[in-house]
Amino acid sequence: MTDHLTLDEQLCFRLYAASRAMTAVYRPKLERLGLTYPQYLVMLALWERDGRSVGDLCEALLLDSGTLSPLLKRLEAAGLVERHRAATDERRVDVQLTEHGRQLRTEARCLPMEMGEASGLSVDEFTALRETLRQLTDALMLHPRSKESQT
Fold it and tell me: Could you tell me the pTM of the whole model?
């Protein structure tokens, strides 16, 4: 009979351990770019679509503004982004890449392939895992208890 209360049986532990291991592999690669892992995620969102509002970035990154704001301050201090109040709505802050921030994308282009190789998974396995994790995240975000912790 399986004991379901062991670490090895917990999906949450496997996700946690995999996330820590992945971040550890990313760390030296991102240090070359002068980024932390959370800053890299912000940059990915901006490379995908520049000129996003802080609210849009929060939504895309599944972060609250209290977590995102310090990241943006550090990216701005590093000369990678600029923040401006929107002309049409002073409550809205838009974030734009600087020229240096746009150029950093070129240096980062190899990271997804390097991380895919580091995973030891085939391209198909990597793609399937990413899609499964997306489905898991979506399902958990819709769960009523998840909504309570977001407010």
Answer: 0.89
